[in-house]
Design a protein that fits this description.
Layout (H helix, E strand, L loop, with lengths): L7 H48 L2 H7 L4 H16 L3 E5 L23 H4 L4 E7 L2 E11 L5 E10 H41 L4 H17 L3 E5 L5 E4 L1 H7 L19 H9 L3 E8 L2 E12 L2 E11 L1 H39 L3 H25 L3 H16 L3 E4 L12 H19 L7 E9 L2 E8 L27 H11 L3 E6 L5 E8 L6
Parallel strand pairs: 10-11
Antiparallel strand pairs: 1-4, 2-3, 3-4, 5-6, 5-9, 7-8, 8-9, 11-12, 12-14, 13-14
Helix pairs in contact: 1-5, 9-10, 9-11, 9-12, 10-11, 11-12, 12-13
Main location: membrane
Organism: Micromonospora zamorensis
Pfam family, one: HATPase_c
Length: 528
């Protein structure tokens, strides 16, 4: 079985329990030591006071002057000992001979212990080992009326008695220490429980590994990631997210409100709303991003929202080109059926002997198609643009729209990359075809692509209902569309190309009564 790893909360609880226990034990030991010291100090003061009282008693001085001091002093000393709670009261001669002792057999024997300072006239306390064991004692001189030392008084309390008193105080001491220890343990347990909830019971190694993986994934993933808190503040944004949203690496965004960060309008609206989004295209600068946003929850609690971004700019360009190719293919399929019908008609006319009519019918449509092809190929040397215009012409024919390539259209060398050129022309033509759809005949779209005064000029005019002046400013904004089902990306992509190359775009009224979109781009080559 794998070794069980302790969580951070468990380790913290164990550490706190050990530290608190040691602190309480150290405090209790210190309190015991202080109590013991206080007990000894109190004992010293008590025996000194008793000894001085006995030494100053006239009865003691009078008894020392008699022939048999012990007969008087022994009862007096024992009464004093019992009254004061001391362990011995010994009255002695200056030569150490005892006149009183708790054990009568010791009377007359020499006193055991130091008496030097008292013989010198100074009362003192000391700790010595005597006949009753170790004791705290005081020795005080007894003076007669001529201030001569005629005896000594020693009063003592044994260490055993002091320790018994101290042990009597221990229940109170432990009665204070035990609740303190229980309170500290409860606080540590509550803190570890809270920490366990916050760390989800993970151990240090697991959290370290999680952070390393988390950091590696955030820096290596090729999708932009933005995490917001419930109050719409940025909790996290990875490197790709900064790049796609146009945020510098030095721009402080963490813990900043979304409203206070310079974001592309579409991204700011999506992040600020907090609504769920699935594969929603948004425009950010010169990029088309696919956004997915959802609310995140953990154990039923809302944590915030997560936004992921994928760069779809190149894919959108390829999709636009694919749409043109698909439209051209569909047009060719339709023309194949039409050509087959005309071929059968021609063959039937030949069989009927009407050869002249068959020749006129067979060459008329061929001449019109060849004329359009010659005009486009002769005016536009860019193969991709020529193919796009031919495809759009076929698509327009299928829709009953007359797509006119202006006679003065001429483009020998495009200053734009072919992808950008196709984006502008293709989307403007598609927008014009949509504008004239459903309008009364004749439906017409005019296209001009050429160099004018060192500028590449692209003009697309239609005979549709036109664009209201108050809507012109919204025309190149993402999401704006004249179609109820449209997503409004075509003109937004055109606007991106214009901004990227430092050009301009305007919308005016065309000669046919519809809209005229004019795009001007510098002829000096690509700009970034």
């Amino acid at each position: 079985m794998a070794r069980r790893q302790w969580s951070i909360a468990a380790q913290l609880f164990a550490l706190q329990a050990v530290v608190v226990t040691l602190l309480v034990l150290a405090g209790a030991a210190g309190a015991v030591w202080l109590a013991r010291s206080d007990s000894r100090q109190a004992a010293q003061e008590e025996v000194l006071a008793v000894a001085q009282t006995v030494a100053g008693s006239p009865d003691v001085r009078a008894a020392l002057a008699t022939a048999d001091p012990a007969s008087i002093l022994q009862p007096y000393a024992e009464a004093t000992r019992e009254a004061t709670g001391t362990d011995f009261v010994v009255v002695m001669a200056p030569d150490r001979t005892r006149f009183s002792h708790p054990t009568r057999e010791r009377i007359g024997e020499p006193f055991v212990g130091d008496i030097g300072p008292a013989l010198a006239g100074r009362a003192f306390t000391t700790t010595n080992v005597g006949t009753l064991g170790e004791s705290v004692r005081a020795v005080v001189p007894v003076y007669d009326e001529q201030r001569r030392i005629v005896g000594l008084v020693s009063v003592g309390i044994t260490t055993r008695a002091i320790n018994r008193k101290l042990l009597g105080q221990l229940p109170v001491l432990f009665g204070v220490a035990a609740p303190a220890l229980a309170l500290a343990a409860t606080g540590s347990w509550l803190l570890s429980r809270r920490l366990r909830r916050q760390t989800h019971g993970l151990g240090p190694a697991q959290m370290t590994r999680m952070y390393e993986y988390y950091d590696a994934v955030l820096h290596s993933v090729r999708e932009g990631l933005v995490v917001l808190t419930t109050d719409r503040r940025v909790a996290l944004v990875n490197d790709e997210g900064r790049r796609l949203l146009g945020l510098d690496a030095d721009t402080p965004v963490i813990d900043q409100p979304v409203a206070g960060i310079d974001l592309p309008p579409a991204a700011a609206e999506l992040l600020g709303s907090g609504r769920d989004a699935r594969d929603e295209p948004i425009v950010a600068g010169d990029r088309v991003l696919v956004a997915n946003q959802r609310t995140t929850r953990f154990e039923g609690a809302v944590l915030g929202t997560v936004l992921t971004l994928r760069d779809q700019t190149e894919l959108r360009t390829l999709a636009s080109e694919l749409d043109s190719v698909r439209a051209l293919t569909e047009a060719l399929q339709a023309q194949t059926h039409e050509s087959a019908n005309r071929l059968h008609t021609v063959l039937t006319l030949v069989e009927l002997g009407r050869a002249d009519e068959a020749v006129r019918l067979g060459t008329r449509d061929l001449a019109l198609a060849q004329q359009l092809t010659d005009r486009v190929v002769g005016a536009v040397t860019e193969p991709a643009l020529a193919a796009l215009l031919l495809g759009k012409s076929a698509q327009a024919g299928e829709r009953g729209v007359d797509l006119v390539i202006e006679p003065d259209c001429r483009l020998d060398d495009s200053p734009l990359p072919s992808g950008d050129l196709l984006t502008v022309v293709g989307n403007l033509v598609d927008n014009a075809l949509e504008a004239v759809a459903g309008t009364p005949a004749p439906r017409r779209v005019r296209v001009f692509v050429g160099a004018v005064d060192d500028e590449l000029v692209i003009r697309v005019a239609d005979s549709g209902p036109g664009l209201a002046p108050e809507r012109v400013a919204d025309a190149f904004r993402r999401g704006w569309s004249t179609k109820s089902t449209g997503r409004g990306l075509g003109l937004a992509l055109v606007g991106q190309v214009v901004r990227r190359h430092g050009g301009s775009a305007e919308v005016t009224r065309s000669d046919d009564g519809g809209s005229l979109f004019t795009v001007r781009l510098p002829g000096g080559g690509e700009r970034s």
